[in-house]
Amino acid sequence: MEPIDPEADPFALFAAWMAAASASEPNDPNAMTLATATPDGAPSARIVLLKAVDPADHAPRGFVFYTNTQSRKGGELAANARAALLFHWKTLTRQVRIEGTVQPVAPAEADAYYASRARISRLGAWASDQSRPLDTRATLEARLAAAGARYPDAAIPRPPHWSGYRVVPTRIEFWQDMPFRLHDRSVFTRDAAGTGWTHTKLFP
After folding, report:
1. What is the average pLDDT across 69-85?
2. Mind listing the domains of the chain with CATH numbers?
3. CB 3.0-4.6 Å disulfide test: which of 6, 62, 81, 86 passes with 166?
């Protein structure tokens, strides 16, 4: 395995690694750990799915996921709009760590992605009070049935509490396994002008 090119564009390198993971990972190559912080500074992490990486002509560029904005992670991001992401691809023995600020996606972006989801998933966004206590599974199923009755055709509007977030990176670290634990680590850090990246190799 070749060392990471210090001249690489980090978004292009991520795209190449994601393509390789999509060809080798048995499930959810776009799964990532999302780390946020509680109002008192305690760490909080969970797995979510990456749904988009912005193209080169998008400003700012970032990594997009969707969720209930009234969930625990939504509340934590409202209080502290910074997050970290971690991708780990076991089949490739690679990982990517991303740190940055978080912005809401535009309503049109959220509408377009929501419309692409399966009907049951769109209804589920109405039925679920994500992260809140649930007495029994039957309550969720009843709320799902009620949502289906309320929206019997394909036109299901996006709930006001369901949208997306864009993690705009200030730091991206690429890690890949090397023999004898002499791993290769490269960090790309956003420069002061915010227009480019500086590269640093790290000891493993």
Report:
1. 97
2. 10-118+161-202 (2.30.110.10)
3. 62
